[in-house]
Design brief:
single chain, mainly alpha, about 0% strand
Amino acid sequence: MNDQIQIKVFKWVSILEGLSFLLLLFIAMPLKYLFNLPQMVQVVGMAHGILFISYLVGAILVYNILNWNFKTLLIAVACSVIPFGPFYIEKKYL
């Protein structure tokens, strides 16, 4: 796959992973614990899990393509578990 295409795919995965994390935290989890509706957590949680793994793999691939230093890779990985973190990575480093 072309390097530019891999970077573009990682941008989209980053955006989708960030959105799925926010959806999980601010919509699905309150529905589960406040209204006893766990179905959305199952669906959104699975999607978020797949996107999270894809984000981590993509970060490693982009690390090699863009010649990031190891600190930048660690920042990208750390931002994957912080709300709005993937958006920061997408804007600052891509």
